[in-house]
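User: Can you predict the 3D structure for this chain?
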Amino acid sequence: MMTKPVDTELILARRPRKILDLREDSQPFGPIAPLASFQTGNSSVDNRIEKAFYDGDLPADDAVLQLYTKGVLVTRIQRAFSLGMFGQSKARKLVPTRWTITAVDSNLSIRLMARVKQYPPIDEYRVYKYSYLDNIYVGILTPESWRFEWVEAWFEPELLATSFPDVDMAVDVEKSDYTSPNGYQPVMLGDSEGFRGRKTYAKPGGCYYSARLAVSEYLDSIRRQAGAIMLREIHPGYIMPVGVWNVRESLRALLKTKFEGFDSMDAAMNYVSTIFEIPKHSWIQTSALLQKAFFQRKISEFN
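Assistant: Here is the predicted structure, written as structure tokens:
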């Protein structure tokens, strides 16, 4: 609830032991030692969060939206949500961080998508590119009604299994037919939705909803509607997954870059092929929306 981090001081009983605890269901924990004393300083309260906290009749999803529209950072909303600070008084409970992040990203993107669907479509194919932490991101916006897809390709399948322990590697993941010069054969995972949204949980998990929030934010900011195909190539230099927040912030950065415009999906994908290592046909094989763009005829062709 504080407006800035609280100063803390701790005294340890002895020198910390040099260990690093890495687990798939928690943040990394570093060197440990017995605690002798712990003191905290003071900070001012964020009145926006405080008001939502003391409103015991305000539903949690409405509290999340109100704080977002008032400019509270999504990460701060998620922390407060995790601590059970929102919702009707008798229904409040602690929420695991992983669920919290996805709940907030999903809730906000649904609200924004409802507005985006009222805007006119863009009039060209747009391709955005961005690189961070040995990840290459490409965003394709298409001149049509809202639809969304998130596809990621992992050059290190072991990291995919660590990041998504609930993914059935035998069912949900497709192995690319491409083999890199270093001998890596990427595995690809994706999911999509149409104009009416989706009712089932997306195969890529929280990354899907973080990406959808970033895209719906951007389209709402430019007051335009579009189809959105977000692609991510994850190279071996990405040695440790850092969380789905990385996807949301990377796509926010992606959509702030200057885009290249094209008059067809084929021309856009030919440009994408100059950015990615994985060839064009492998992305098309995995992507439901790319397959529709290339192989499904539209009623407008018969006018």
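The first helix runs from residue 47 to 54. The mean pLDDT is 89.
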